[in-house]
């Protein structure tokens, strides 16, 4: 059987991760402090990415995650295939959710092998803009997906108070 | 890099997916490939994908994995009070990946199991391709 010549892009995992390399953050308008926090998270992610380059280059931070926000809660979904709830630590402190753990090699191969999947220690943080009811945080692990639901506190869900604007008086 | 490329060339050919249904795929899962004396084993990261929904076909020495990951947040409703995405790194939609198998595999002996978001595919080698111990007579 003839094996076709390959494109280098097919081989390296970063081809697969083109779309994930610059995750969208639609929270630019929420204030400089939070932005700085996001920026720092990104920086830390980048540092770990640099370390990861030795592993045949998975440039995206691991695990990949989505953060969704509704009026009532935040939902963080992380892709952690091959691990279970026993392997992952979920922490919440000062408005920051931390996921961390280690993915160990499943087994040694007897012959040749190729690895694209992530192995090693990981830690990712998500800072949440609004106050969360810490007692009600729930985490569920199913089919390689860790979902953490963080309900907003009563104070945080209060609708914004409308402030009446008075006219400045007549100047004429 | 060249070494890795040669290695993959030797073990498993990875088809260029610019043609056929690969063109409609939105992402590719990460895959580990291990060779054992009697089989090849592929480990495919597919978190959030029902392993039963994955289409695995072996045709003419080409192994194809295809399927879809649906965005739950969109299913939940994207109306006025729907969730607002703060961060979106996960790949959604159709995935597709193909491998050219070495001609030493036994196409009749393919097994697949899904656990914790990882799909494990085991493909047996033909008996004649397995190493045989030859005893030396004195």
Q: Major β-sheet of chain B, in short? A: 4 strands, antiparallel
Beta-strand percentage range of chain B = 35-45%
Largest interface: A-B, 56 and 52 residues
Helix percent of chain A reads 10-25%
In DSSP terms (H or I, runs of 4 or more residues), the helix count of chain A works out at 4
Question: Taking Cα atoms only, what radius of gyration of chain A do you get, to the nearest Å?
Answer: 22 Å
State the total count of DSSP E strands of chain A: 9
Oligomer: heterodimer
Order of helices and strands of chain A: HHEHEEEEEEEEH
- Principal-axes shape call of chain B: elongated
The structure class of chain B reads mainly beta
**Secondary-structure element sequence of chain B?**
HEEEEEHEEEE
Beta-strand level of the residues of chain A, as a percent range? 25-35%
Mean pLDDT of chain B: 81
Beta-strand segment tally of chain B: 9
| Sequence of strands across the biggest β-sheet of chain A | 2-3-9-8
Calculate the terminal CA-CA distance of chain A, rounded to whole Å. Answer: 91 Å
Largest sheet of chain A: 4 strands, antiparallel
